[in-house]
Amino acid sequence: MRLSRYFLPVLKETPSEAQIASHRLMLRAGMIKQSSAGIYSWLPLGFKVLRKLENIVHEEQIRAGHIPMLMPTLQSADLWRESGRYDDYGQEMLRIKDRHDRDMLYGPTNEELITDIFRSHVGSYKDLPLTLYHIQWKFRDEIRPRFGVMRGREFYMKDGYNFDLTKEDALHAYNRHLVSYLRTYERMGLQAIPMRADGGPIGGDYTHEFLVLAETGESEVFYDSEITDLKFGDRAIDYDDVAQCQAVLEEFTSRYARTDETHDEALFQQVPEDRRRVARGIEVGQIFYFGTKYSDAMGATVQGPDGKMTPVHMGSHGIGVSRLMGAIIEASHDDNGIIWPEGVTPFHVGIVNLKQGDEEADAACDALYSSFTALGLEPLYDDRNERAGGKFATMDLIGLPWRITVGPRGLKNGVVEVTCRRTGASEELPPEAAVQKIAQIYATL
Ligand code: ATP
Ligand code: MG
């Protein structure tokens, strides 16, 4: 993409309504625009990152054997009356009437809808196990929408639902989700720690929240610092292997790590003092096993091997896709702007032409652009007639992990400058070597 043809409405001024870095930077970098409280338009740059996050979530869900689908945003209130949650959910639910005076709602989550689909089409244990998921907009009429996309009213969420014959099978599904979530967050350049959580309105005893440590996080968290040394990495995992998934769950959840809702001070005191940490975190996902709560209420049963009808065991598993963008920026920025991890960056590399209109510099930038494109990488080429300082500031603000600076002086010596956004380190390389270096970094992702 050439910046001169793109739509990147960066702001010079720091928006006064934004209290935290991620919100401020998303507004300044022209990624989002608020349309009303807690509701945003995703401008091209923000939309690009949202798609990247969504793709990673899809890839990891499909790898775990979960099946993508899409359910509507608007739901009929009748289903929610069956589960009893139409009244329980309270003011967070946006209720709507259609022209026939029927009660509708904008889905805050989808347990009822998916249970209805399940009971309409599945009748035998032979069709289990089954895990269906979608990534769809949700609406929760939060009392205090704030921090930009972090606590929106409309937000983008992956929610998945497992259906199993027994509790044991459903707990394997739970573990499978935990493993797939660890991989998902790591691919986004994040450490998200599974912490024992509270069931809330969705219900259930088995539940973990995934928290990204950040001073601006809304949850208070208590943990054993050893947990931050754990990495899932690129280890091979067979998602059908019950023991393997269970072992990962044990590895990642055996140390003390809880949110304030489930914090137990006496247990926490057993952690050696030098490893006890009290901090803040951003919840970027949650997994639940809730047994037969919805299948009992809504009659989702299957015929078991013994011929008897039995309610299915279920769980639900969410990832806050839009909130993740804020969480990543909270975890990865500096005074000059965002620093995207390579896995989610909107463009792979920025090209800055120091002397637009100079024949050689223009030709060298065009050649770099074609080389990257041919390798399947997306460059953002700042081809505007701007001062170098302005171009650097824009690149730093929007946070592309790698920048190539091209100027007549370097070209005389046959080199361009490659700069790493995170460390600020620069090195001079011939253009082909610069392309190779950056291509190699992305090839290992
Ligand atoms: P919170 O405690 O932050 O209100 P929740 O526990 O009610 O969230 P879940 O029902 O667990 O949320 O939804 C799954 C994920 O969706 C959460 O882990 C979070 O990342 C995201 N999410 C929930 N509410 C919002 C919101 N208002 N804005 C953006 N993302 C949200
Ligand atoms: Mg939650």
Labels describing this entry:
single chain; 445 residues; alpha+beta; BirA Bifunctional Protein, domain 2; Rossmann fold; 2 domains; five-stranded mixed β-sheet; 14 helices; 33% helix; 27% strand; globular; binds adenosine-5'-triphosphate; binds magnesium ion
Secondary-structure topology with pairs:
Layout: H1 21-28, E1 32-36, E2 39-42, H2 44-63, E3 67-68, E4 74-76, H3 77-83, H4 85-88, E5 94-97, E6 103-106, H5 111-121, E7 130-139, E8 154-164, H6 167-187, E9 192-196, E10 206-213, E11 219-224, H7 242-253, E12 257-259, H8 265-268, E13 276-291, H9 293-298, E14 301-303, E15 309-311, E16 313-320, H10 321-331, E17 333-334, E18 337-338, E19 349-353, H11 359-374, E20 379-382, H12 388-398, E21 402-406, H13 408-412, E22 416-420, E23 426-429, H14 431-443
Parallel strand pairs: 3-7, 19-20, 19-21
Antiparallel strand pairs: 1-2, 4-6, 5-6, 7-8, 8-16, 9-10, 10-13, 11-12, 11-13, 13-16, 14-15, 17-18, 21-22, 22-23
Helix pairs in contact: 1-10, 2-6, 2-10, 6-7, 11-14
The chain binds adenosine-5'-triphosphate and magnesium ion (MG).
Structural overview:
There is one protein chain. The chain is 33% helix and 27% strand. The protein has 445 residues and is of the alpha+beta class. The protein has 2 domains: 9-337, 2-Layer Sandwich (BirA Bifunctional Protein, domain 2), CATH 3.30.930; 347-443, Anticodon-binding domain (Rossmann fold). Strands 3, 7, 8, 9, 10, 11, 12, 13 and 16 form a 9-stranded mixed sheet that branches. The chain has a 5-stranded mixed sheet with strand order 20-19-21-22-23, with helices on both faces. A 3-stranded antiparallel sheet has the order 4-6-5. Strand 5 and strand 6 form a beta hairpin. Helix 11 packs parallel to helix 14 (431-443). The model has no long low-confidence stretch (mean pLDDT 96). It binds adenosine-5'-triphosphate and magnesium ion. Magnesium ion binds next to strand 13.
